[in-house]
Amino acid sequence: MSTESHGIATDASAPLWSRLKHAHHFRSKEEEFDACKIGMWLFLTTEVLLFSGLFCAYAIFRAMYPEAFRGGSHHLDWLWGSINTGVLLISSFTIAWSIRCAQMNQQALLKFNLAFTAFCGLLFTGIKFGLEYGPKWAAGKRPGSLYDYPNPSTPNEPVWWSVYYAATGTHLLHVLIGTAVILIMLARAQKGMYGPKHYTGIEIAGLYWHLVDLIWIFLFPLLYLIH
Amino acid sequence: MSHEAAHDAHHHEGSYLTRTGSFWTTVIQWGFTKDHKKLGVMYLTAVLILFFVGGMAALMVRAELWSPVRQITTTSVNDAGETVTTTEIKGQMFNFPKAGETATSLNTGNETYNRIFTLHGAVMVFMVIIPSIPAALGNFFLPIMLGAKDVAFPRLNLLSWWIYVFGSIFAIASVIAGGVDTGWTFYTPYSTTTDADHWRVVFMIMGAFILGFSSILTGLNFIVTVHKLRAPGMGWFDMPLFVWAIYATAIIQVLATPVIGVTLLLLVLERLFHIGIFDPRLGGDPVLFQHFFWFYSHPVVYVMILPGMGIVSELLAVHAHKRIFGYKAIAFASLGIAGVSFIVWGHHLFAAESELAATVFSALTFLVAIPTAIKVFNWIATLYKGSIVLNTPMFYALAFLFLFSIGGLTGLPLATLATDMHLHDSYFVVAHFHYVMMGGTIIAFVGGIFHWWPKMFGRLYNERWALTGAVLVFIGFNVTFFTQFFLGTQGMPRRYASYVDEFLTLHRISTVGSWILALGFFIEAAVLIYSLVAGRKAPPNPWGGLTLEWEVESPPIEHNFHHEPLIKHGPYDYDDVVPPHWDPKDYPLPEPLPTGARH
Ligand SMILES: [Cu+2]
């Protein structure tokens, strides 16, 4: 959501965050903060609904082809899944901490936490591509008609892979978008835009990141753990 | 008078339309504007242009149906005594073969017909009706009616506009590349296999997907605006009903559109990589697509109609100078419709789902009739003993009441399983949804344009010609579509270029109706364009309305209000409030309003 910076006060020596004013069409900074938060919660609702379509597809196909899902999920490595879960959980903690840092005006720690969160996003992506998608794709465990694995557990196993790639792929896209947003926050933090009275951007980026984490918390057991 | 002069001297802010630079500077200023009014005007322009494109396609569909397409094979014996077989195609108007095909084939002509009606449907649904009222009129008037300077997130609003443009470019690219023949519903497995060697279907689906994002972001913006930016003193029940309607619409946009988003995404993956989720050969389920599709596309029917209902509430109250009857009932009916809309999608799948599911969805569908009827009765009660002025906006509002009632009531036989057996996929369905979508939404939209035109552009239009156009639209519409109820009950299926001779007369009446309709719209377009060029300057409150947009200047200044407004009366308190800037000379009423304030 937009956090606009209109009309900068005259005292140029004060830190940037203390000079930022609310957008002209809001009556106060608090009103702007509330509006941005409501907006973000609504946006998160749309994200949940987007994924609900994929969860729905998962439920329906699981009911239709239980053996394909059982056989397919055996091919996933729960260890890498767990490590990635850990990576996201830690990053959720650091983004929450970075909001606290902004509130307490701990600028160095704020930047560190943001950078660390973005690093976790990239680490998750690296593990997903390098150690999960890559080898599986090479082995022919691909979605739908691209499936080329010599001994499937049941003839319907390609459907399992379609659901797997569609769900985790859409999630991965969200991880990448979230990482990009956090990097933008980092660049802004570098300029001194965030402080005790001005941290809307980090707050809403954090909300988004928690959602990305939360969706993985649902995807992980459904895909990796339930056999 | 001196007060007015002093007032003017204080503020030198020009209207939002004031040009501050050369032509190109102005173009760039508009392209990157965060002003909700300019964005509203740009949406309005885009929607009207696309309405013209979709309307042309509709005229082509009706023209093709002037005569049934027939392939006639005749065998004769020539002078040399040989038997000669000649094949000729009769009654075909349009036949645009793809590269490498000949125009003589019946098939290429039928395919051309499929492409034309898909173009009509997709443009009208995704690019005209869905954005028409919320994005164009809603953008312009929602903040002003709330007493705000802008929507909550102006930059996001600009982004929505560019996403809309970007999505439309995708869809238009698809049309230029030859168009799609899937119908606007993109049912699998047809949509994943047709035109397999070409990108145009993917373009069209991507276009719809991108337009969905625009719709979500606009809805989100409006919800937050309503929650946070109401003027001091404006409680929830002091909001104009147009705002309530846009609010209910925005809720549906935000909650339903993500589901079509993921559906279209899966459809594209299905088409490009054959992931098999909707393909029975790979273990997938095509009915799943239908469920996903209609889970969005039924609620979206109310994204189309609710804002129209909001406009009608405004038009009836203002042009009858009457306190709206059952304000809360109308407001809550909007929310009720929004709620019910999410549990009735299965009525589009009566033929594809189990009997039990069909029965349940049929029963749920009848629920929609309750809040809808509440609205209609309250509107009619509003008119009772009102000072009705039969001008163009009021005529459109009354046309809406008439046409929408027919559209709504003919929905009931379609929701009833036994009668739907006979009527489904027939012209009865075509007539029904045109009465709702066009007779409802488009008529209300056009009525809204005439109602707010003086406010938006500061110009009055020629009332007599506008009303003439409106009457022609009303007549043309009924001639075109009422005949289709008969065609449908007699068994004419939808989406065919050919038909048996019995339907000839009715089809021809319908086609003539489409010409009357087109003439009406051309007159309306001419009236509006002429008013921009040579219209009289509009006063701030030409109709004597009480909502906040009539307190600001025509056209409004850049930040809408000189001072933040303070709400002291309700939006429809015609009994005891004198309208702002009110000069009965501008709009003589049959009976003067009681001017004595009661408090
Ligand atoms: Cu429906």
What does this structure look like?
The complex is a heterodimer of chains A (227) and B (599). With 227 residues, chain A is mostly helical. Chain A has a single domain (29-224), classed as Cytochrome c oxidase, subunit III, four-helix bundle (Four Helix Bundle (Hemerythrin (Met), subunit A), Up-down Bundle), CATH 1.20.120. In chain A, 74% of the residues lie in helices and 0% in strands. In chain A, helix 2 (29-64) runs parallel beside helix 7 (200-225), helix 4 (78-104) runs antiparallel to helix 7 and helix 6 runs antiparallel to helix 7 (200-225). The model of chain A is unreliable at 1-9 (pLDDT under 50). Chain B has 599 residues and is mainly α. Chain B folds into two domains: 37-66 and 103-586, Cytochrome C Oxidase, Chain A; 70-102, no CATH class. Helices cover 62% and strands 3% of the residues of chain B. Chain B is built from 18 helices and two strands. Chain B has a two-stranded antiparallel sheet with strand order 1-2. In chain B, a hairpin with a 5-residue loop joins strand 1 and strand 2. Chain B is globular and about 90 Å long. The two termini of chain B are 26 Å apart. Chain A binds chain B through residues 1-2, 4, 23-26, 31, 34-36, 38-39, 42-43, 45-47, 49-54, 56-57, 60-61, 64-65, 68, 143-146, 155-156, 158-159, 162-163, 165-166, 170, and chain B through 148-156, 216, 220-221, 223-224, 227-229, 254-255, 257-259, 261-263, 265-266, 269-270, 273-277, 279, 282-285, 288, 292, 559. The structure holds copper (II) ion (CU). Copper (II) ion (CU) binds next to helix 9 of chain B.
